[in-house]
C-alpha cells in the first residue's frame, strides 16, 4: 500500500536518485543536495513522499508564504507512473496548504513540457495570463 508522508532524512538517497532520473536537465541550483537541505530548513512538513514497502516512489514540495502556496518537484518514479501517485501527492499537498489557510496555489511548468502541463490541467490547474519572472541572487 502506498503511503503519503513527510520526507525523512534516511530517504535522501532515494529522492536524489529519483530527481536525477526525472529531472535530468535541472540546473545546479535545483540539485537535490541544494534543494533538500533548504526545504528541510523551511516548512519541512510540506516536503511529502509517496512510499511503498519502504521505497520512495514519488515526491512533492509545497510552500506557503501567507499569501499563496506553491508546488514544486512533483516526481513519480517512471516505473510507478499511471497508478495515481502523482494525483495523490498533489491532493495531499493541496490539503496541507489549505490547512494553513492557503486559498491560491501556483506552480510553474517549462513550456517544452506539454505532457506535464496536461497532467496539471487534469488536476484542475489552468494557464494564467501572467508572465513569470525571476532573478537569481
Short description:
The chain has 137 residues and is α+β, with helices and mostly antiparallel strands. The protein has helices at residues 12-22, 32-41, 85-99, 114-122; strands at residues 3-6, 47-52, 55-64, 69-76, 105-106.
Describe the protein's architecture and organization.
With about 140 residues, the chain is of the alpha+beta class. It contains four helices and five strands. A five-stranded mixed β-sheet has the order 1-2-3-4-5. The protein is globular. The termini are far apart. About 25% of the residues are buried.
What layout of secondary structure does this protein have?
Layout: E1 3-6, H1 12-22, H2 32-41, E2 47-52, E3 55-64, E4 69-76, H3 85-99, E5 105-106, H4 114-122
Parallel strand pairs: 4-5
Antiparallel strand pairs: 1-2, 2-3, 3-4
Give a quick set of tags describing it.
137 residues, alpha+beta, five-stranded mixed sheet
On the 0 to 100 scale, the average pLDDT is: 95
The structure class reads alpha+beta
Helical proportion, percent range: 25-40%
Could you give the order of the helices and strands? EHHEEEHEH
